[in-house]
Specification:
Elements: H1 2-11, E1 13-20, H2 23-33, E2 38-42, E3 47-53, H3 57-66, E4 69-77, H4 79-85, H5 90-106, E5 112-116, H6 123-133, H7 146-156, E6 160-168, E7 171-178, E8 192-196, E9 200-209, E10 211-212, E11 219-220, E12 225-228, E13 230-232, E14 238-240, E15 244-260, E16 262-280, E17 283-286, E18 298-309, E19 312-332, H8 335-353, E20 358-368, E21 372-384, E22 386-390, H9 393-398
Parallel strand pairs: 5-7
Antiparallel strand pairs: 1-3, 1-4, 2-3, 6-7, 8-12, 8-22, 9-11, 9-15, 10-12, 13-14, 15-21, 16-17, 16-19, 18-19, 20-21
Helix pairs in contact: 2-3, 6-7
Length: 399
């Protein structure tokens, strides 16, 4: 549809009004004659508006005469009418023709690559590999071998399971999906015990292989045997197995955090400025003369948008930088603010250290010193406590 609009604009489009006793007859005859009319809309009880190609106007007048209707041109749009109005201005005509040819040529090139991927891969490395494979700004869209580029990326990046490359206008949109790797299988040929990694109270225990050494509700210390990989067969000796179990314990974890008595905040002065630049083919062209920023402390937010003429995307992007001045001020931190901040910091620290811990309760001690607020938090958590250690067969044999 967009290409059709461009072609019609080049050859010229006229908007006509048709009036008569039987405007429907005009439409029937025009259809039989093969005339192309679009955007037909009623104009009163005995007329309508329509759009047609400029070159068909003579045929339209013949159809109007046969249908006993009156036809008028209401509007003329298109390249041929612009050139006709400026036909005596040779410099303008040559520049317009050169600009049109340049835009047509540049629209055949690729001018941007947008990558959508998660944190599972190195974004910069992936963009570099795409560029090396041929997907980069400035290459001809017709010469892009998308299947070959996909195969190269999938070969060089084992973490990527699927990659899609879509070309829309002068930009390429790339989306990568991660590969789900199978879990590493434990070496079950090696005998091992399961011991506790924490001082805890056994909350639940489910043994799949090995001999249970503790029961639910029992208090254990760090390093204590939970499941033995050595099974005593009596006079038959010992059997060595690779112990497997799922054991959860109730653990008490201490977290310590502190914040100063005074916080720091940004206060915007109201002073700001905006700078713009155009980026095309990897080249940045500033639309300002003075590149210095007259502020000591400032925020800078850059927005990037594709330059369009109607629905047509130009091979360039507009960069808009909004710069806002601010000053830093200290303010006394209230106890409520300090408590809320410390609670969040303690909880995030717990989550970072033990992501699998389910918090069942907590005890908090909040104190204030001469220069800071301090929080000591004790979290009661239910979490996995089992860890495997290798069985030393020589020591068992000696015993």
């Amino acid at each position: 549809m967009f290409i059709l609009k461009i072609v019609r604009w080049i050859v010229g489009v006229i908007t006509i009004s048709v009036e008569g006793a039987f405007p429907e007859r005009f439409l029937n005859i025009a259809s039989c004659e093969g005339l192309k009319l679009w955007d037909v809309r009623r104009n009163g009880a005995q007329g309508f508006f329509a759009c047609a190609r400029a070159g068909d106007f003579k045929r339209i007048k013949n159809v109007a005469r046969r249908a006993s209707c009156r036809v008028r041109i209401r509007k003329k749009t298109g390249l041929r009418f612009i050139m006709f109005r400026h036909r005596k201005r040779k410099a303008f005509m040559v520049s317009a023709a050169a600009f049109f040819v340049l835009v047509c040529f540049m629209s055949t090139l690729l001018w941007g690559v947008e990558l959508e991927c998660g944190d599972f891969t190195d974004r910069a490395a992936l963009l570099s590999d795409l560029s090396d494979a041929g997907l980069r700004a400035g290459v001809s869209r017709a010469r892009l071998d998308i299947p070959r580029i996909r195969n190269i990326i999938l070969t060089e990046h084992d973490e990527i399971a699927w990659i899609g490359i879509n070309i829309k206008g002068t930009r390429a949109y790339v989306k990568a999906e991660p590969r789900t790797l199978p879990p590493e299988l434990a070496d079950k040929s090696e005998a091992c015990n399961i011991v506790s990694d924490f001082d805890a109270v056994i909350e639940s225990i489910e043994v799949y292989e090995g001999q249970t050494a503790v029961s639910r509700g029992e208090a254990v210390t760090r390093g204590q045997m939970l499941v033995s990989g050595v099974i005593d067969l009596g006079e038959g000796g010992f059997q060595f197995v690779h112990s497997e179990a799922e054991i959860y314990g109730r653990v008490w974890i201490d977290v310590h955090e502190s914040v100063p008595l005074y916080g720091m905040k940004r206060v915007y002065t109201g002073e700001s400025l905006t700078k713009r630049a155009v980026k095309t083919a990897g080249v940045k062209i500033n639309l300002f003369l003075n590149s210095s920023i007259p502020y000591d402390k400032y925020d800078k937010i850059i927005q990037e948008s594709v330059i369009k003429i109607g629905a047509f995307e130009l091979p360039a992007t507009l960069l808009t930088a909004r710069i806002r001045e601010y000053r830093e001020e200290t303010y006394p931190l209230s106890q409520n603010e300090a408590k809320n901040t410390l609670k969040l910091k303690c909880f995030l620290k717990l989550r970072t250290l033990y992501p699998e811990a389910a918090v069942m309760g907590r005890n908090i001690e909040f104190t204030k010193t001469a220069d800071s607020y301090i929080m000591d938090a004790e979290y009661e958590c239910v979490m996995p406590i089992a860890v495997s250690i290798k069985v030393m067969r020589d020591e068992i044999s000696e015993e």
